[in-house]
DNA sequence: CTGAAAGCGCTAACAC
DNA sequence: GTGTTAGCGCTTTCAG
């Protein structure tokens, strides 16, 4: 360590200075910093990790999708980690990856991380023993598939959000609500489905058959063609906004106007949701809050291995009401067929500039 | 090293086995692996990095946005890195971050990386000396702000794509093309603007004033209100799809039908582009190809520090034609005002299921 | 407040 | 094919 020589102190003192440890005189600290500056010194992270046994980095497992939800969650994590002093190591799992999430966790453990974040876990048939592999704490974001001692979960209360959406539609006067579900391998999709189903059950409403998509607008469109065939259908709760958009297009092509003939509620509040036609009523997810709080709890568990994990707090539920929802159309007189083919539906200006919307709850 | 003992070999031999080095007899290799298995052994990455001087990891600087383009690029990088044996260290720069990209690069260098990827650089007023800081190679994705010895650039040929979009509109018969630009701090936005402007100039067309947004549908909407006021405007090239969607909504509210009255071309081909109304004609970016090729070149530069960098290849330009573009409306008779207020524009079914579209070039 | 010694777990360079 | 000897640059532990 050249810096030590130049500053005329011991190696350890240099270490103290660069680690902001106490018990270094201001004078010595200044001298060391100066010497370091002059030599363009930067600490060697590998050596530090080797000697201390702590890597000061957190591994992140992402599902390799372009989906807004997972991407937003990851970005929330990236944003949140800056305040913690930890670095991020990211590994990507493609859906259909043979080794799955477990493989990704393994590779992270190989690289050396103090904690792990798993974003939007899916049931890939490998899981279950995630936390058994290393003894680092694991934070599962998006939905809690399991909870072993060192596993934390930070959900977004998907079931509660699904309930809110469904009840809103019911309150509008709809007899029942259809559900355009996400792929059931995703825990997040399961939660939304479950929240919808149980709400309907609690209100004693009929539970229509579920249509499942893969989160894409494309499958939403396909599902929409199917749903459009059902004349009794007046309201749909879609598991995400992309599918809702595909769905709305299919409905429009089938001559079913949104929201006059059928109401649609999406999920996520993607940035364009306010600008599609009609502007989408949707459940906004508090990705940032969830990521931030989750990371805080993870760091706590890393730094206090023996303390009990911090409790999770329920994030707020936020229904953004725009123009894709309305009361159901008046009951059809029996025997009448589908209504007119196309919809003149004049375009109404947005209530307020920039995607204004009223917020419910 | 306990594994060495259990297998009855030297430490170095264990090292050889785990590094897949040659010159180890099959028998010994088997014994070592077995011993390792039994002890649940995994190599210590920090020690390895310390001893070898190579971290086997690549740092990634991202701009902390939820934008589709940057996000897709990062995912391409994540996907591409799996085949290289390198790990990813990610650090996030928020726009408006005081330390900027340079700060992010610094922190990566502190953590120890063998190479750096900068995705979608912006001109944050700090830049310029990126590669002077460490001696690791740097890959700049999205647009090349500078090129020092060890800096590679993997552009997406934004200017060429802008040219293609603009010429397509011109060929449709439009007198000229307006441009809804991205924030000019982004090099990518500048390239698109430049490509558009030079194309117009090359064809001797008038160059309308540029309207600038911030990539969001919301600013696209605002810009749309402005543009709608210009009666002569019949075609707009938007710097991304989100803005195009906001723009289209504003036009519709102003009674200007797309594509009958004005044609709109977007940029990116976001997943919902095929399902909005009308389905969006847009320039598709080959994010995956760009990321993959860029990473390959970066790894080459890491592993062959003295060899000249691999040459970049131009990615293909891909115009996806959907329903937001058409020939201009017949010339207005002088003196006639704006046309009717609202647009009945019946919804036409998609040409093919799942966002079918014809591809141009 | 500061320093000396030991060693984290691996790989480099060279022997055998 | 395999082993030996040195460190990599830091932190730890224990003395002052």
TrEMBL record, chains A, B:
This is LacI family DNA-binding transcriptional regulator. Residues 302-361 are annotated as: Disordered. Keywords: DNA-binding, Transcription, Transcription regulation. It holds the Pfam family Peripla_BP_3. Residues 1-52 form the HTH lacI-type domain. It comes from the Bacteria. InterPro entries: HTH_LacI, LacI/GalR-like_sensor, Lambda_DNA-bd_dom_sf, Peripla_BP_I. GO terms for molecular function: DNA-binding transcription factor activity; transcription cis-regulatory region binding. The keyword DNA-binding applies. PANTHER family: HTH-TYPE TRANSCRIPTIONAL REGULATOR GALS, LACI-RELATED TRANSCRIPTIONAL REPRESSOR. The keyword Transcription regulation applies. Gene3D superfamilies: 3.40.50.2300, lambda repressor-like DNA-binding domains (1.10.260.40).
């Amino acid at each position: 360590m050249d810096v030590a020589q130049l500053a005329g102190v011991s190696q350890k003192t240099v270490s103290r200075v660069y680690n902001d440890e106490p018990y270094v005189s201001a004078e010595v600290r200044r001298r060391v910093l100066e010497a370091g500056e002059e030599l363009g010194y930067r600490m060697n992270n590998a050596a530090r990790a080797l000697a201390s046994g702590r890597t000061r980095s957190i591994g992140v497992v992402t599902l390799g999708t372009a989906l807004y939800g997972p991407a937003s969650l990851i970005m929330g994590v990236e944003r949140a980690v800056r305040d913690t002093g930890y670095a991020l190591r990211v590994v990507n799992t493609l859906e259909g990856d043979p080794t799955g999430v477990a493989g990704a966790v393994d590779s992270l453990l190989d690289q050396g991380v103090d904690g792990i974040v798993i974003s939007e876990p899916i049931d890939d048939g490998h899981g279950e023993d995630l936390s058994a592999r290393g003894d680092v704490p694991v934070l599962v974001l998006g939905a809690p598939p399991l909870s072993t001692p060192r596993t934390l979960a930070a959900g977004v209360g998907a079931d509660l959000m699904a309930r809110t959406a469904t009840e809103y539609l019911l309150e509008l006067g709809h007899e029942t609500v259809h559900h355009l579900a996400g792929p059931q391998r995703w825990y997040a999709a399961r939660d939304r489905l479950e929240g919808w189903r149980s709400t309907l059950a609690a209100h004693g409403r009929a539970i229509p058959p579920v249509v499942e998509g893969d989160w894409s607008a494309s499958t939403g469109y396909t599902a929409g063609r199917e749903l459009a065939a059902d004349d009794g259908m007046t309201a749909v709760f879609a598991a995400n906004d992309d599918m809702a958009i595909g769905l709305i297009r299919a409905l429009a092509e089938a001559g079913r106007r949104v929201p006059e003939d059928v109401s649609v509620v999406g999920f996520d509040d993607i940035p364009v949701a306010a600008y599609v036609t009609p502007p989408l009523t949707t459940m906004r997810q508090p990705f940032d809050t969830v990521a931030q709080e989750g990371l805080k709890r993870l760091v706590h568990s890393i730094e206090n291995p023996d303390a009990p994990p911090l409790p999770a707090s329920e994030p707020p539920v936020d229904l953004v009401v725009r123009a894709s929802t309305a009361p159901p159309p008046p009951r059809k007189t029996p025997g009448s067929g589908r209504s007119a083919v196309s919809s003149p539906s004049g375009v109404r200006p947005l209530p307020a500039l920039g995607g204004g919307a009223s917020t419910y709850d």
